[in-house]
Amino acid sequence: MRIGIVCYPTFGGSGVLATELGKALADKGHHVHFITYQQPVRLNVFSANIFYHEVSVPSYPLFDYPPYELALASTMVDVILNHDLDLLHVHYAIPHASAAYMAKQIVAKKGRNIPVITTLHGTDITLVGRDKTYEPVVTFSINESDAITAVSQNLKEETYRSFDIQKDIQVIENFVDNSRYNKKPIDAFRKVIAPNDEKILIHASNFRKVKRVEDVILIFANVHKQLPSKLLLVGDGPERRFMEDLVRKLLVQDDVRFLGKQEQIEEILLVSDLFILPSEYESFGLAAMEAMAANVPVISSDAGGLPEINIHGKTGFTAPVGDVQTMSDCAITLLSDESLLKQFRKNAKAQALKFDLNNIVPQYEKLYSRFCRMVCEA
Ligand code: GMT
Predict the structure, then answer these.
(1) With a 6 A CB cut-off, is 11 part of the ligand 1 pocket?
(2) Which of 26, 89, 273, 337 is within CB 3.0–4.6 Å of 47 for a Cys-Cys bond?
(3) Rounded to the nearest whole angstrom, what is the distance from the C-alpha of residue 20 to the centroid of ligand 1?
(4) Do 277 and 319 fall into the same domain?
(5) 229-273: per-residue pLDDT in tens?
(6) Whole-structure pTM over 0.90, yes or no?
(7) Containing structural domain, residue 70
(8) Quick check: CB of 282 below 6 Å from ligand 1?
């Protein structure tokens, strides 16, 4: 099939998932056309089946706000017609679903039917989309999609709760490519981070408020009082400044490393002992699943879809949002008991295997084929 993928190219989970999906589909012989304003961060491989179409937004003195959505819709039209796409799969509703709706109407006038599949990822529903500035357009464009998917059962329920959606939403969960983690941890790398065999805690995100990164630091400070330990912080974002202040205030700065945005997170995860994700909300928690693929158990909040993936007492522990004390206690329990940690590592890996690319990508292909038949029969 010839599939157009529209996503954010940045480090956000939706862009990562969309890019990994595109790569997996290309490996299976589909032609994948990425349509976005910048090369997606995970699009770091050459494949004869991958095409990249950059959306450029010309500026004009009249525009205080250059109309990205129009440029995106026009680029979609161009790619649909010139590359004979079979379908468009847009990731993150805002503004991708409404731009796709417009592109669909434009090509329809030229006698072309283009099915649009919208995948809802999280904050497009739970945070930004709900805002009344966007809500009518989000509701309309989700309803106009030919198929809708959500990345967890929780997100599906949240969507029905917050928007008047008239269609069925199919849950297709996030996935992880376990084969990328089938390598030995680099001992020398672990030694550099933890020269005295300290335990390594890790958090990776875009450091936005919803991630409650201050809780990560408070949990680490509690663990640090009990156990020799180090904290790795992967990513960057608006909360970083406050995190740095807090790290200094709690006098743990010598044992905390800000690693910035990292494309190859596997090596870092493979030397880690525990992943911390205390988010206010998480539709799925792809970062936690990637940690599990690297045999790393997770301490997380029980918000949103997290309990669907982080099984309390098995792959890690969950606690109510903001319950730093319980999360710290669980982390200490796990990190102080080698045989428990070993068992949780195994459980975490087994959980990641359930969400393996080879189990999830065929669900998207099956969904696509429904529309391919419609296109072929039309
Ligand atoms: O987590 C973020 O802030 C980024 C966000 C995005 O849409 O780019 O991630 C969301 O989508 C991921 C992929 O489906 C999910 O695994 C994340 O849980 C979800 N984030 C939130 O719901 C906060």
Answers:
(1) no
(2) 26
(3) 14
(4) yes
(5) 999 999 999 999 999 999 999 999 999 999 998 877 899 999 999
(6) yes
(7) 2-175+357-377
(8) yes
